[in-house]
Amino acid sequence: MSLKRFSAGVLSIAFAFGAVAFPFSTGAAPAHYQRLFYYRDGALAKKSFLAHASSIDVFAPQVYSLLPDGSLSGMLDPKLLAFAKQRKIKVMPLVTNGNFSPADYQSLFKDPAKEDTAINVLIYEAKTYGYWGWQIDFEQMKAEDKNAFSAFMARMANAFHGNGLVLSIAIVSKVSDTPSDYKGALWDNLIGAYDYDALGASADFVSLMSYDDPESAGPVAPMPWLERVLAYTLQHIPASKVSLGIPTYYWQWNDMTKKLVGIGGTEGIDIVFKKHPNVVTTYDAIAQAPYLHYFVGGTGYSLWYENARSVAAKIALVKSNKLYGVSLWALGLELPSIYTSLK
Question: What's the pLDDT tens digit per position in 57-97?
Fold first, then answer.
C-alpha cells in the first residue's frame, strides 16, 4: 500500500516513543535518469526542497484532487512554483481521486461529460501555471473498474499530448495478475484496478509504487520483492517508461508482537539516537536495507529505513535495466545522505 494515504502530521511525528511544456520522448532510455521527488506541504519538506533542488529533475507536489463532478480542488504555493521555475525544475503535480475514495472516481467513470470536464480543467490549470504535465494518482479503486480507468487515461493522454503536456500515472505494485497471490482483499480493492499494458501504452511514464511490500515484516521495500515487482512490470511496460518508486521513510516494528508500530522519517531516526544511546545499526545484504535495533523497557524494536547504500542499490537497478528514472516518496522524510547516491 502507499504511504501517501498517511497525513503529513503522522509522517512527521510517527515515532512511537518520543514523539509551455518541455518536449518528451520515450524512444530510448535516457542518458540521465530522471529524479522525481514527491512533496507534501510542511516545514521539513520545504526545507529539503530548497536545500536539494540540484538533485531534483521533477517536482511532484500532492496538492490537487478531482471531485466527483470533474472539477479540480487545490493549488500549489506560488513561492514553490516560482522557485522551481527559477531552478529549471519541471513541475508535475499529482492529482488524486479526492481522498482516495471510490465515490470520487466512480462518478467520473460513469459520465463521459464529467471526464471531459476533468480533462479540460487539468489542461487549463497546467497551461495557466506552466506545469510540465500531471501525474494521475488514483488509488483505492475496485478491480471491476480497471477497464473504465484505463479508458479514462487513454482519453486523457490524447488530450494532453494534443496540448503539449506530459501524462504520468502512479501505479500500485504487482508481482502477478493472479488475485490469490495477494492477501485478503488487496486485489479486489487496490491492486486489480491497474492494467499495466493499457496504462503503460497511455502514459509517457509511470511511477511504480514499488514500496510497502504487503508481505514484509521488516524493510519497506526489500530487494527480493522489489526485483519481483520490476520483473513483472518490465513484461508489460517498456523500461524507458518506468520510474522506480523509492521510499524515504521508515517502518518501526515491535520485535515481540511483530506489529508495525511507527512510520516516519529522519526526525524519528534522530529521536531514536538521542533517546537510546545503545542503538545497534545493521545492514541486511539480502534485503539491501539498513535497520536500527534498540530496547525500551526490555522490549526490542527494529526500525528499517533507507540510507545512501540502500538507495544506491536501487539506483543500480535503474541503470542496469535502463529505466526512465526514480520517484521518491517524499521530501522531508529522507536522510540527507541519500543525495550522495542521486548525483
Answer: 999 999 999 999 999 999 999 999 999 999 999 999 999 99
36 to 20, 268, 306, 335: CA distances (angstroms)? 19, 24, 17, 16
At 2-20, the pLDDT tens digits run: 443 333 333 332 333 333 3
Residue 170 predicted with pLDDT over 70: yes
In angstroms, the CA 261 to CA 340 distance is 30
Q: Can you give the residue ranges of every domain in the chain?
A: 23-248+307-341
DSSP H or E stretch at residue 84:
helix 78-86
Radius of gyration for the alpha carbons in the chain, expressed in angstroms and rounded? 20
Q: Residue 282: which of 310, 249, 246, 315 has the closest Cα?
A: 310
CATH class of the structural domain 23-248+307-341: alpha beta
| Whole-number Cα distances in Å, 53 to 48, 131, 321 | 8, 17, 26
Contact 39, 45 (CB under 8 A): yes
Q: Is the pLDDT of residue 125 over 60?
A: yes
Half-sphere exposure of residue 117: CA atoms within 13 angstroms, side-chain side: 15
Q: How far apart are CA 9 and CA 285, in angstroms?
A: 32
